[in-house]
Automatic annotation (TrEMBL):
ATP binds at D414, K415, T416, E512, F554, K577, R608, T688, G689, D690, R799, K805, N829, D830. The chain crosses the membrane at residues 72-87, 295-318, 349-368, 916-936, 966-988, 1008-1030, 1042-1066, 1072-1097. It catalyses: a 1,2-diacyl-sn-glycero-3-phosphoethanolamine(out) + ATP + H2O = a 1,2-diacyl-sn-glycero-3-phosphoethanolamine(in) + ADP + phosphate + H(+); a 1,2-diacyl-sn-glycero-3-phospho-L-serine(out) + ATP + H2O = a 1,2-diacyl-sn-glycero-3-phospho-L-serine(in) + ADP + phosphate + H(+); ATP + H2O + phospholipidSide 1 = ADP + phosphate + phospholipidSide 2. GO terms for biological process: phospholipid translocation; positive regulation of myotube differentiation. It comes from Scleropages formosus (Asian bonytongue). It comes from the Eukaryota. Residues 129-192 form the P-type ATPase A domain. The gene is ATP11A. Pfam families: Cation_ATPase (PF13246), E1-E2_ATPase (PF00122), PhoLip_ATPase_C (PF16212), PhoLip_ATPase_N (PF16209). Residues 852-1112 form the P-type ATPase C-terminal domain. This is Phospholipid-transporting ATPase. Keywords: ATP-binding, Cell membrane, Endoplasmic reticulum, Endosome, Lipid transport, Magnesium, Membrane, Metal-binding, Nucleotide-binding, Phosphoprotein, Translocase, Transmembrane, Transmembrane helix, Transport. Residues 42-96 form the P-type ATPase N-terminal domain. Its cofactor is Mg(2+).
Length: 1198
């Protein structure tokens, strides 16, 4: 299969090219068209089954084994095991086979269990009931049995089971309202339209008489594009053809709202639905630590091969003398003499490989698997990451990536439902310079609770009152809000009664709902749209009726919307609201400067602002407008362009009324979390399907963009004015002018010396940047775009399709620095980027559980990301880094004496250690202490890690597993091994024969044989490597003491029992009484103590000198924490403990919060509850005392 061709096709669909691809014909209700109209050719389509699992019952064993043996270590141990089975080797095959079997089995069980959970989730989706129309009756089926062509009945609040074409609805106008939160992250209501000729088919019996076919394109992943037509057959031979667009398509995963029921026909099912096509295929994620382990493993494999080769060559050099080749006590058999020398040499090479193979630690992989599996429970058990609102805590779906949480460099986050609660709140409005705050100032009157407010000229005159009421009416009329007449909340029906009471508004824009609700709080209530008349309840409880004549819908290019209405007195009004940049140039009168000043003030505060204007129309002007709009709407060619020209001609010569300010409420502590992530050296990108203005306001509110940030735009609007090439090069020159060739990664991102840049890009422009040239390459644009992004402290990507989000993540992931990426989101539209990133985190939010189910980790709220990365990620990384380095170190210590021993035994492959010691060294004697260390070590207190995010930089870019540190550990192991071997060797240098043929040392009077020597070396080895770990431990508990000293005690007890009893099942008794006899000699004790001290001394001296002369930030804080006896005060200035190169970064003046001046306005400061916590900024050592208090409302700087 040509995957490149498929990829090109998909990318072509996503670019929006109007290419008609192979079409499909769908027969509605599986009914054939009338005879003689067209040939009936039924096509085969997949069923409606969704599959997110990786394995099946039949392929689990072969597929899982294949994946596991792709790991270098597993494949190596399989080869060693087979060699031990085939040839005569110094050690038993069991020593390699059992650990390998254990590793493979444990990993298979773990991965099998995780996939079983995915199967379980898939079954829950595939078996949910759906209602299908068959032969004029409603039939209930399981979702996976749905077929293309089935007519489906969907009721209110149900989710669409597949992609459908809307045929009819319970509403007379053939419309329905849908939320697409799980697809594009927007929980607002969108309007979809039934086919005009089928909207009257409202019963099952009527639908049974419908004969029609749908011709449409084959499935493609673009959520916002659909091309098709419906052919309806009636009495006449010629069918009626009607076009179908994206406004007729109900997508799988969306939910029906405010519509009693709809009938629709299935066109795409199962894995062909747009939602499924936007899923990335699951792939096995590998952490950076695992890649480092594999690289180190290759180095040790080369060392192993070179050792075996050297020993094989030296063996044959040694045996060149006939007396050495075949001594009198070891004569060869005839068959051995006749074997070819190359075969003998190869066999000896394999035997040496087996003898030295312990340098590759198979038990390291077992320990790493156990550490990851057990360590993941610390996230699950963390009470601070438990959310009372949903009653759930964090979940770990994949434990393979724990340590990757400590290496994140780029964070890609969704906006709606991730950073924000998607809950708009009306804050204030400004009419002709007079500010109105709900429940505070209304028509110049100070209402209760408004004391301390800075009142801005709170006495409007008679003209002001007229403008004020016109402004309120404009906001009650200029919108697309729908009123829900009745809503059941907790079993209680609530709604509008006699035009009063609680009203429930729904709209495609949550801003509009907030504005209408804000007007209601200020005395003007929008009641309903009935018979094309909009009804308003004014302050005098009088109902005003306005006839709705025209709606000029909002679009992202114009950035405004308008309505034309006729009042009860016959006056014609054109009301317009939109972004300040699109309203102010079209205004000819009004208090522009006062309103502009207020708009700029609110924008700086991170509020979403809109301006409102109007003009009175004469009847002749209205007729001209109707003619202009009618001509544009009927155009078949370039309809959008003609409509835009018409809107531009109509929306002119306004009188400015005022402006509004709405807040998209951020999630709790979202701004604090982003600020901490920035300080930790991570770059945060927001990828959203939302509008640019909305997303930008959120970025300011969440501190992603700061007051000093210079915003660079790479949007459709700009590329229409200037070609893409010029825009890119202009932006590139702008960001590189100051930074030169240095990228933003060099700096903190909070430094005052460099201009902060923020980039905004939209989906259409991104498509153009990524679009391949004719020769198949993406040209130079991608590299220039990446260069611009690297020099920006934050990037906002708006109007992104789900696959585009994944493309952005992939672009950064495979850039030349290969940074570690993390994606976080809460909807099905975020699944693609979650699967693409190195680490995917799902938020268990309001938009379904698709993101949480497909992620590696799931957390209840965005604020929990701070602890997950800065604390858990930090700990996981330093623990596993020590585990990996320590395992290689202790195995070098273990095997290098065996290598040296071959020089003293004629390269005869004689083991230095007893078989029991060879087998149990990694399994029992030294495995438990390092496993426990890797689970509970805390090199720095948890509270300090949370308070000082910059400590995260110390472990960035895999700093603890770099080659320099790896080589240091390896040389330390070689040094210790040399000390063990030659220390013991020179101690027993003077030897004499005893009467029974044993060697006895003249200076110790101790029996000295092969096994005594090996046991002495092994004893020093076990004690040294265990004490080395004890010296590296910072966090001591009773468990550490029990395991470390218990392991040493176990070794001694085991050795006493192993050598103190004649075991009947052994065919040799070579270790009998060896250990006891060794310990009976005083000099042996002295030797053990002396060699352990000499081995540990260099590492201790090196650490003491480095801490004294060149301490890292981490070591400074460790020293300070010891000084305060483990209770480093919150008031200790952490910045004074930082290395000097951090000072410039930390000295940056942080932005004041929105409520910096408590007396400024009531709406900005919600005082309530006592102080939650008190912390000091890590930089107050340079800035003076600066504390941040968190109150019951918004965070407030004092």
């Amino acid at each position: 299969m040509d995957f490149n061709a498929i990829r090109n096709l998909i990318s072509r669909y996503c670019t929006g090219e109007e290419n008609w691809v192979d079409s499909r014909t769908v027969y509605i209700g599986h009914r054939e068209p009338p005879p003689g109209t067209e040939a009936y050719i039924p096509q085969r389509f997949p069923d409606n089954r969704i599959v997110s699992s990786k394995y099946t019952f039949w392929n689990f064993v072969p597929k899982n084994l294949f994946e596991q043996f792709r790991r270098i270590a597993n494949f190596y141990f399989l080869i060693i095991f087979l060699v031990q089975l085939i040839i005569d080797t110094p050690t038993s095959p069991i020593t390699s086979g059992l650990p390998l079997f254990f590793v493979i089995t444990v990993t298979a069980i773990k991965q099998g269990y995780e996939d079983w959970l995915r199967h379980k989730a898939d079954n829950a989706v595939n078996q949910c009931p759906v209602h299908i129309i068959q032969h004029g009756k409603v039939v209930r089926k399981q979702s996976h049995k749905l077929r293309v062509g089935d007519i489906v009945l969907v009721k209110e609040d149900e989710t669409f089971p597949c992609d459908l074409i809307l045929l009819s609805t319970s509403r007379d106008d053939g419309t329905c309202f849908v939320t697409t939160a799980s697809l594009d992250g927007e929980s607002s209501h969108k309007t979809y339209y039934a086919v005009q000729d089928t909207k009257s088919f409202n019963t099952e019996q009527e639908l049974d008489t419908l004969r029609a076919t749908i011709e449409c394109e084959q499935p493609q992943p673009d959520l916002y594009k659909f091309v098709g037509r419906i052919n309806i057959y009636q009495e006449r031979d010629e069918p009626i053809a009607r076009p179908l667009g994206s406004e007729n398509v109900l997508l799988r995963g969306a939910t029906l709202k405010n519509t009693e029921y709809v009938y629709a026909v299935a066109i795409y099912t199962g894995m062909e639905t747009k939602m499924a096509l936007n899923y990335q295929s699951k792939s096995q994620k590998r952490s950076a630590v695992e890649k480092s382990m594999n690289a180190f493993l290759i180095v040790y494999l080369c060392i192993l091969l070179s050792k075996a080769l050297i020993n094989t060559v030296l063996k044959y050099v040694w045996q060149a003398n006939p007396n050495r080749d075949e001594p009198w006590y070891n004569e060869k058999t005839e068959s051995e003499r006749q074997r070819h020398v190359l075969i003998r040499a190869f066999t000896d090479f394999l035997a040496f490989m087996v003898l030295f193979n312990y340098i590759i630690p198979v038990s390291m992989y077992v320990t790493v698997e156990m550490q990851k599996f057990l360590g993941s429970y610390f996230i699950t058990w963390d009470e601070e990451m438990f959310d009372d609102e949903i009653g759930e805590g964090a979940l770990v779906n994949t434990s393979d990536l724990n340590e990757e949480l400590g290496q994140v460099e780029y964070i890609f986050t969704d906006k709606t439902g991730t950073l924000t609660e998607n809950n708009m709140e009306f804050i204030e409005c400004c009419v002709d310079g007079h500010v109105y705050v709900p429940h505070a100032i209304c028509n110049g009157q100070i209402l209760p609770g408004a004391l301390g407010i800075d009142m801005i000229d709170s006495s409007p005159g008679p003209d002001g009152k007229e403008h004020e009421e016109l402004f309120f009416r404009a906001l009650c009329l200029c919108h697309t809000v729908q009123v829900k007449e009745e809503e059941t909340v907790d079993g209680i029906k609530r709604g509008i009664h006699q035009g009063k009471g609680t009203s429930f508004y729904i709209s495609s824009s949550p801003d509009e709902v907030a504005l209408v609700e804000g007007m209601k709080r200020l005395g003007f209530t929008y009641l309903r749209l009935k018979d094309n008349h909009m009804e308003i309840l004014n302050r005098e409880d009088e109902i005003e009726r306005f006839e709705l004549l025209e709606v000029l819908n909002f679009d992202s290019v114009r950035r405004r919307m308008s309505v034309i209405v006729r009042s009860g007195t016959g006056e014609l009004y054109l009301f317009c609201k939109g972004a300040d940049s699109s309203i102010f140039p079209r205004v000819i009168s009004g208090k522009v400067e006062q309103v502009r000043a207020r708009v700029e003030h609110n924008a700086v505060e991170g509020l979403r602002t809109l301006c409102v204007a109007y003009k009175l129309l004469t009847f002749e002007e209205y007729q001209d407008i109707c003619q202009l709009l009618e001509t544009a709407k009927l155009a078949l060619q370039e309809r959008d362009k003609k409509l835009a020209e018409a809107y531009d001609a109509i929306e002119r010569d306004f009188i400015l009324l005022g402006a509004t300010a709405v807040e998209d409420r951020l999630q709790d502590k979202a701004a604090d979390t982003i600020e901490s992530l920035h300080k930790a050296g991570m770059k945060v990108w927001v990828l959203t399907g939302d509008k640019m203005e909305t997303a930008a306001a959120t970025c300011y509110a969440s501190k992603l963009f700061r007051r000093s940030t210079q915003i660079l735009e790479l949007t459709t609007k700009r590329t229409e004015e200037q070609n893409l090439h010029d825009v890119l090069f202009d932006l590139s020159r702008t960001v590189l002018r100051q930074h030169g060739s240095l990228t933003r990664d060099t700096f903190s991102g909070l430094s005052n010396e460099f201009q902060d840049y923020g980039l905004i890009i939209d989906g259409a422009t991104l498509t153009a940047v990524m679009k391949p040239d004719q020769d198949g390459s993406t040209g130079n644009y991608k590299e220039i775009f990446l260069e611009i992004c690297r020099n920006c402290s934050a990037v906002l990507c708006c109007r992104m399709a789900p696959l585009q989000k994944a493309q952005i993540v992939k672009l950064i992931k495979f850039s030349k620095e290969h940074p570690i990426t993390l994606a976080i989101g809460d909807g099905a539209n975020d699944v693609s980027m979650i699967l693409e990133a190195h680490v995917g985190i799902g938020i268990m939010g309001k938009e379904g559980r698709q993101a949480a189910r497909n992620s590696d980790y799931a957390i209840p709220k965005f604020k929990h990301l701070k602890k997950m990365l800065l604390v858990h990620g930090h700990y996981y990384y330093i623990r596993i880094a020590e585990l990996v380095q320590y395992f290689f170190y202790k195995n070098v210590c273990f095997i290098f004496p065996q290598f040296l021993y071959q020089f003293f035994c004629g390269f005869s492959q004689q083991p230095l250690y007893d078989t029991a010691y060879l087998t149990l060294y990694n399994i029992s004697f030294t495995s438990l202490p390092i496993l426990l260390y890797s689970l509970i070590e805390q090199h720095i207190n948890m509270d300090i890690l949370k308070r000082d995010p910059s400590l995260y930089r110390d472990i960035a870019k895999n700093s603890l597993l770099r080659w320099r540190i790896f080589i240091y550990w390896t040389f330390l192991g070689v040094f210790d091994a040399v000390v063990f071997f030659f220390g013991a060797y020179f101690l027993f240098d003077n030897t004499t024969f005893t009467s029974n043929g044993q060697l006895m040392t003249t200076n110790t009077q101790m029996m000295f044989g092969n096994w005594t020597f090996g046991t002495l070396v092994f004893t020093v080895l076990v004690f040294t490597v265990t004490l080395k770990l004890a010296l590296d431990t910072h966090y001591w508990t009773w468990i550490n003491h029990f395991v470390i000293w218990g392991s040493l005690l176990f070794y001694v007890v085991f050795s006493l029992l192993w050598g103190g009893i004649i075991w009947p099942f052994l065919n040799y008794q070579r270790m009998y009484y060896v250990f006891m006899q060794m310990l009976s000699s005083g000099p042996a004790w002295l030797c053990i103590i002396l060699l352990i001290t000499v081995s540990l001394l260099p590492d201790v001296v090196k650490k003491v000198m480095c801490r004294a002369l060149w301490p890292t930030t981490t070591e400074r804080i460790q020293n300070a924490d010891k000084l305060y006896q483990g209770h480093l005060s919150e008031f200790t200035p952490l910045s004074s403990l930082h290395a000097s190169h951090h000072k410039a970064a930390d000295a940056h003046h942080l932005n004041p919060r929105r409520s910096e001046h408590p007396s400024k306005k009531l709406m900005y400061t919600h005082w309530g509850g006592g102080a939650d916590y008190c912390t000091f900024s890590s930089s107050f050592g340079h800035l003076g005392l600066h504390s941040a208090y968190s109150w019951g409302g918004h965070e407030t700087s004092v």
